[in-house]
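Hi F.,

I've been meaning to write this up properly since the lab meeting, where we talked about keeping a consistent format for the predictions we share between groups. The idea is simple: the sequence comes first, exactly as it goes in, then the structure tokens exactly as they come out, then a line or two of notes. No screenshots and no reformatting. I'm using this chain as the first example so we have something concrete to point to.
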Amino acid sequence: MSDSGTILELVLDNIPQGVFWKDRNSVYLGCNRVVCKTLGLTGPHELIGKSDYQFPSLTKAQADAFVEADREVMKTGVPLNAIIEPMNRFDGATIWIETIKVPLRDESGNVIGVLGTWQEVTSRRQAEEALRRGEQRYRSLVTAISELVWTSNATGSGLRVDPPLEDFTGLDRNQLRGSGWLQAVHPDDRERATSAWSHSALTVSPYECEFRLKRADGEWRNIHSRGIPIRDPAGTLLEWIGVGVDVTERRRAEIRIQKLHDDLERRVLSRTSELEAANKELEAFSYSVSHDLRAPLRAIDGFSRILLSEHAKDLPPEAMEFLNDIRTNSRMMGQLIDDLLKFSRLSRHPIQKVRIQTSELVRVCLEELKRSETGRDIRVKIGELPDCWADQGLLKQVWINLIANAFKYSSKQAVTEIEIGSGNDAAGEPYYFIHDNGIGFDMRYVHKLFGVFQRLHRAEDYEGAGVGLATVQRVIHRHGGNVWAEGEPNRGAKFYFTLPERGLSP
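Output, unedited:
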């Protein structure tokens, strides 16, 4: 081979493109190493004298496409540029090649074959395909969603629209392009929408504005539009993309909610006024009870006491008994008035929570109550009583009433046994309890326990006005807790109450 031939062969074998040439029958006359490597050949000698149909890695469709392009070039004598087509390598992988084919001519200018070059563009093809799929998904998404999607160029001067915006406004894309979209904006809102867009375009900051947009049917709809600037990795602004959301129903709902809120406030003010008036009436009633009812009770008790002390010798025994009953019942009436007044004041008493040492409070209540229980064998077992946060005075009323209740209904026992402690329910909520060995009660009537004047036992057997447990329930409910009881006839009773979890301290 001549030196020029050697140089040409070296050039052909070292360029990254595949180079080949064929005769008029599309039979290969030669190629460079890139072609041999792609087809799995050791050298050009394995290719010379063969057609594309004789290489097992190529499909018939691929071979047909190659030969058809060869024939067109040789028939027309015109080169074919940028033919992008698939090719199977010898290892089975499919690559994409961009081919250029030109006619080969003899010294007389006659076409005697075809010369071709190709380079692999698989990566570019994959990128283009990914871009095409992404564009297709974007278009599908834009079509499927109810929002109005828009884009604009980097300067913000050229609005581009998608079908949903055209369908919404009834205007075609040519009418909406650029600043044409403003013709669909309510005249009173155009300046605000334009100013917001100009500011965003100037400062390259997110755009956000709400305005009324005319729908194709002529109705004005509230649209909340938001757009963001899109930049390349270097930070250069490429375009704007945004969406417009129809918030008309949301705004209408907000107006309805505001009206309901305003109406509720008016009703609350009205009810508050009514409640204040009712409280004043209750205060007046309490004053009347405290003064007007107590006066005749004091008179009854006083005159009865005078009769007993100054005229006892002139009265028969039966009259003396009647007078003693009168005094006893007048004192009971006075106590009932006191209990009712205390109960009525519970709802108005402001709660002032402090940290309370429960064990100390229970000890004080026991000492106060035991002073009036002389001669009784009372045994009290006190377990762990965690500290809590509550109103000192109100919580003392709870313990006083519960302990007094236990003393009263176990008074007929030779030995009164009372247990006071705490625990946790299945949900982990802490509670306090007091358990006595008294007469108990039937659980069928447990719902009556905490009602005012509700008694499960005869007044002749156990004195009381039936207000104590109602007071306990009112106080515990005002603290956000709960109270309940368990009992069994002649087997004692157990009362429980809870304070909110935040009310019990560790």
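Notes:
The mean pLDDT is 81.
The CA atoms of residues 293 and 337 lie 8 Å apart.

If this format works for you, I'll send the rest the same way.

G.
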